[in-house]
Amino acid sequence: AELTARTDGLFQLSWPQVTPTTRTTEHTLIEVPTGNVHDVTEHILTTLQTHLTNTTDNHLIILTRNAVNTPTPDLAAAAVWGLVRTAQTEHPDRITLIDTDDTLDPTTLTGNEPQLTIRNGKTHAPRLTKTPTPQPPTWHPDDTVLITGGTGTLGTILTRHLIETHHIKNIILVSRQGKTPHTLTDLNANITTTACDTTNREALHQLITNTPNLTAVIHTAGIVDDALLTNLTPQQLHTVLATKTDTAHHLHELTQHLNLKAFVLYSSLAGTLGNPGQANYAAANAYLDALAQHRHTQGLPATSIAWGLWANTSGTTQHLTTTDHARLTRDGITPITTEHGTALFDAALGLNTPTTIATPLNLTTISKNPTTHPLLRNLIPRRTPTTTG
User: Fold this and answer.
1) Is the residue at 276 inside a domain?
2) For a FRET experiment, which of 151, 296, 363, 371 has its CA 20 to 30 Å from that of 58?
3) How far apart are CA 27 and CA 90, in angstroms?
4) Residues of the domain holding 30
5) How many whole angstroms separate alpha carbon 10 and alpha carbon 18?
6) Buried b (16+ CB within 10 A) or exposed e, 5-37
7) What pLDDT digit, counting tens, does each position of 336-371 carry?
């Protein structure tokens, strides 16, 4: 029962085969180029802004290759999926997102599935599914754990958990200011707080080089700079990307030789569901999920946890209004308590899968909503269509 309680709210993204309805409506096809994440996402952002502000424009099909549902994702294309998921939320029924292997004509598939992958002539759509039962994670007191964003709300919750529950003695908190939060001063462990701009590869390299016996890296750092997609500036995009994606990629490259036991990325449900007003944040988090998949395929440790809303207010949620919280509750998103969140963290690490979604969902509430997000369709009982005479 305890394991069930710990894993309640843990999901994975699966890609079952579907048969989408086909439409022959006029459409505009936008192919996503290859390149680095900043250039590619800015290109798609400005392209979408042009089309979406033109109300007479056709249905848009955004076409990627190897972005999702693949062992070796193109990280920039994966970030585009996060960006476009938000565009779809903000502009319902205007955009279809398709990842193709060129075995089927994608332009015939603009029906009832907003997101699809084409594999060997078959179409697949993303769905959340429950995870299997995890194994308990194996920490050792002598582990040395480096946490980016370590002095933030989630970083301090995690630090206390690792010390009190797993008895880890050595924690390095990385932050911009480099001051240890007073909430951690009662803990019996070696907590070192270091000021470092983690988007600066050389600074991060120095930090990692000067950290003896590093065994785990946990990247919790992130910022938000919200705006509706049609108002989002390239600067807002790049600022949010830098903290999440640039830092994650530097950590990935700079620790590959270290034989880490854990490499954990704090992602967000925004990258999976496409939160309105957060296209930049969704792009950054979708990138983290893809990076974890990339590492997993290379045989490197990798766990990206796409968190839902934490009950504790943090730097990324302090701007949420009462209306925002009411909308999330209506959508069935249940806030994560500290106790549940730390249990979900342990469970996610015990799954040995690269990506996990951690968000308690109120399926009763979701089943009563007039429309269901396509990703949640497999979690709730099928509705019986009602007929009117």
Assistant:
1) yes
2) 371
3) 19
4) 13-130
5) 24
6) ebbebbbbbebeebebeeeeeebeebebeeeeb
7) 999 999 999 999 999 989 999 999 998 888 888 888
- In whole angstroms, give the CA distance from residue 175 to residue 147: 9
Encoded tokens for 95: 């955009």
pLDDT digits (tens, 9 = 90+) for 120-158: 999 999 999 999 989 988 999 999 999 999 999 999 999
Residue 212, C-beta contacts closer than 8 angstroms, at least 6 positions apart:
144
Nearest to 154 by CA among 247, 266, 302, 281: 266
- Residues 209 and 357 both lie in one domain: yes
Q: Is the pLDDT of residue 93 over 70?
A: yes
Provide, rounded to the nearest whole percent, the portion of the chain with pLDDT above 90: 75
**Rounded to an integer, what distance in angstroms lies between the CA atom of residue 267 and that of residue 287?**
9
Give CA–CA dist 278/282, Å, rounded.
Answer: 6
CA atoms within 13 A on the CB side of 380: 20
Residue 81, C-beta contacts closer than 8 angstroms, at least 6 positions apart: 64, 67, 68, 97, 99, 115, 286
CATH, residue 218: 3.40.50.720
Cα 270–Cα 271–Cα 272 angle in degrees, nearest 5: 90
pLDDT tens, position by position, 35-58: 999 999 999 999 999 999 987 778
CATH number at residue 75: 3.40.50.11460
Q: Is residue 374 part of a domain?
A: no
Q: Is the pTM of this model over 0.90?
A: yes
